[in-house]
Write a structure and sequence with these properties.
41% helix; two-stranded antiparallel ribbon; metal-binding; Zinc finger protein 26; 13% strand; Znf_C2H2_type; transcription; zinc ion binding; elongated
């Protein structure tokens, strides 16, 4: 065997301090290329007595579950996972870890050190694994594929969470209300609904949110950004949940069913609101008159009765309305459209509310009752008119009698130009021109 080099020779070769090496003699053999140890399996030689194991003969086996490993260190880590042993403790917060590498990564949370830098955008990370995942945002690589639907993911954790959408597994449980979730991040966001903690603040209006995803969605109310587009009709949405609900208008899918009446709905929020019709719950209260409502939209509409706000304007005659539904019905007075047809007599109507009221003439249903004398009516407007017989209120002043006194005739026949003081008289007169029976009721 050749003579071993002196300490001076060693320093000249490797420039490594002898005192820093656990086994200097073994280390020196890496420089002088001496390989005195031979593998009995393949006859390969090595400078170290710790030969690298063969992949086809994995020598390190767990005695608990029989899982095999190529490295003794991996077996040790695995055994600690079985026993729960955590020998590596953080000197700052006393948190314990199974592996020394995990402790090193954790310490950077205290020091703020981020030694791993993206070569594309220079963003820095505390862990190399997070850098690898980040790099896929640049490359578009999605190496983790769902075996059920073949959807690809950039991170294995996202794939695991996605698989639960197929299995229905929800392993993360809230310790307060026992509600279960498919992923830990959703559970963390949910816990803030109990604590009231809102850590994410909007830089535009300073509104605070419990989680970052809600903040990102909120920011679109400022930017007007609608990144989610329907592949069928190209309609755009600010929220992915709205797009999913919209897509069901194309497919007709209604996966949310009421447990009381079995009525089905396209989205969960509509089901929740519907359930209030069974429970009678009215959580939305007017701050002006304390009237309560089942729906938040109904409260918003009601508030306009106090403010007088009429944000919906007709593009034909510029008439303004407090409700979009009223505007839509009004527009049909210009177009003549009557899309709502009675299934009993085929009579057509310009709005659904008039059709509903009309249907009661067939069914005899009178759902509106006077609170004074219990008389029932088919229309809510009839109840309001009837209540004035009890109150004595007379809010409407007769303008017809005034015309009789002044001999004003503002209603003119478009056929013969004859004028009338009353619209009803004009309608009767017009039948003389059309040949319609003037005596019909």
């Amino acid at each position: 065997m050749p003579d071993h080099p002196t300490d001076d020779a060693h320093l000249a070769v490797g420039a490594v301090g002898i005192e820093t090496i656990d086994n200097p003699m073994t280390h020196l053999q890496t420089h002088i290329e001496e390989k005195p140890f031979q593998d009995v399996v393949c006859d390969n030689k090595s400078s170290s007595a710790t030969l690298k194991p063969h992949t086809n003969g994995i020598p390190f086996e767990c005695t608990v579950c029989n899982k095999k490993f190529t490295r003794s260190e991996s077996l040790c880590d695995h055994l600690r996972a079985q026993t729960g042993e955590k020998p590596y403790e953080c000197t700052v917060c006393n948190k314990k870890f199974t592996r020394s590498e995990s402790l090193r990564d954790h310490l950077r949370a205290h020091t703020g050190e981020k030694p791993f830098e993206c070569t594309v955008c220079n963003k820095k990370f505390a862990r190399s694994s997070i850098l690898h995942e980040h790099l896929r945002t640049h490359s578009g690589e999605k190496p983790f594929e769902c075996t059920v639907c073949n959807k690809g993911f950039a991170q294995s954790s996202n794939l695991r969470a996605h698989l639960r959408t197929h299995t229905g597994d929800k392993p993360f449980e809230c310790i307060v209300c026992n509600r279960k979730f498919a992923d830990s991040s959703t559970l963390r966001a949910h816990l803030r609904t109990h604590t009231g903690d809102k850590t994410c603040e909007c830089t535009v209006c300073n509104k605070e949110f419990a989680d970052r995803s809600n903040l990102r969605a909120h920011l679109r109310t400022h930017t007007g950004d609608k990144p989610f587009e329907c592949t069928v009709c190209n309609k755009e949405f600010a929220y992915s949940s709205n797009l999913r609900a919209h897509l069901r208008t194309h497919t007709g899918d209604k996966p949310f069913e009421c447990t009381v009446c079995n009525k089905e709905f396209a989205d969960r929020s509509t089901l929740r609101a519907h359930l209030r019709t069974h429970t009678g719950d009215k959580p939305f209260e007017c701050t002006v008159c304390n009237k309560k409502f089942t729906w938040s939209k109904s409260l918003r509409n009601h508030l306009r009765t106090h403010t007088g706000d009429k944000p919906f304007e007709c593009i034909v005659c510029n008439k303004e309305f407090a409700y979009s539904s009223n505007l839509r019905a009004h527009l049909r007075t210009h177009t003549g459209e009557k899309p709502f047809e009675c299934t009993v007599c085929n009579k057509e109507f310009a709005d659904s509310s008039t059709l509903r009221a009309h249907l009661r003439t067939h069914t005899g249903d009178k759902p509106f009752e006077c609170t004074v004398c219990n008389k029932k009516f088919a229309r809510s407007s009839c109840v309001h008119d009837h209540l004035r017989t009890h109150s004595g209120e007379k809010p409407f002043e007769c303008t017809v009698r005034i015309r009789i006194h002044t001999e004003e005739k503002s209603f003119e026949c478009t056929v013969c130009n004859k004028k009338f003081a009353r619209s009803g008289t004009l309608r009767v007169h017009l039948r003389n021109h059309t040949g319609e029976n003037v005596n019909r009721k």
